[in-house]
Design a protein that fits this description.
Length: 240
């Protein structure tokens, strides 16, 4: 913890500096946790590693008013039938993104495919930070460069870098999950830049049909479509 972001202290000032007997978390989460202050909830929100009843590694969420006391996380994202048969979810890179009056949450997770031994970065989107929708199952970034051909892990945080651009940072490696002889192999941290408010979208070379469900206020039935149209866009509002 730190009072100024420059001088940092380990442990809890009210407890002995003994992480074995006074752990920061009262539950197991062995990799790449993500914690941030959510000003909308006025709570700390954490995304942690969890294990589904199927045995698959999954992503769980918890929130607290006190960083020393975390309730048991609840699984919010786990492999399903749309994923390869042997799949785990790694990485809990959740980010709160604010643009104008809109707030969204993006969760960059890495799908570990046991058959290929690679970790492919994907993204899920949420309005509340708890219920995430995997709109597109495509890889968010392709593992197609020499330095990230094996695994990609996106870091938390979507950064406004000015000039109408945002950026994320990821760590990539040339080796697969199971490889051990990696000395001298390429790896590194990389910045990805994109136009502001263009973090993820649905694209097509010809045509694409999709349905979005949600609530529309009958007294103000307006629907805003955020689209870069190069051709035609046809939309219909279906009232159930």
């Amino acid at each position: 913890y730190s009072a100024d972001g420059i001088v940092w202290h380990h442990g809890d000032p009210e407890l002995p500096n003994d992480f074995l007997h006074y752990p920061f978390l009262p539950f197991g989460s062995d990799t790449q946790c993500s914690v941030f202050w959510d000003p909308g909830l006025r709570k700390y929100v954490g995304y942690f590693r969890a294990w589904h009843t199927t045995g698959a590694r999954s992503i769980a969420r918890s929130e607290t008013n006190d960083l020393r006391n975390w309730p048991m996380p609840r699984i919010i994202l786990s492999p399903d039938l749309s994923d390869p048969q042997l799949t785990d979810y790694y990485n809990c890179a959740a980010s709160r993104y604010r643009s104008d009056d809109e707030t969204l949450y993006f969760l960059f997770y890495s799908m570990f495919d046991h058959d290929t031994q690679k970790c492919y970065p994907r993204v899920a989107v949420s309005r509340d930070g708890e219920h995430f929708d995997r709109v597109d199952r495509k890889n968010y970034l392709e593992n197609d460069r020499d330095f990230d051909a094996g695994m990609i892990f996106v870091g938390p945080g979507i950064h406004d870098i000015g000039n109408g651009e945002c950026a994320i940072v990821y760590n990539g490696s040339n080796w697969d999950h199971g490889e051990r002889d990696v000395v001298g192999r390429p790896c590194g941290s990389v910045m990805v830049r994109f136009p502001k408010d263009r973090i993820v979208g649905l694209g097509t070379e010809s045509y694409y049909n999709f349905t979005v469900t949600g609530f529309v206020d009958p007294s103000n039935p307006e629907v805003y479509v955020n689209a870069d149209v190069r051709g035609r866009l046809r939309a219909a509002l279906i009232v159930d």
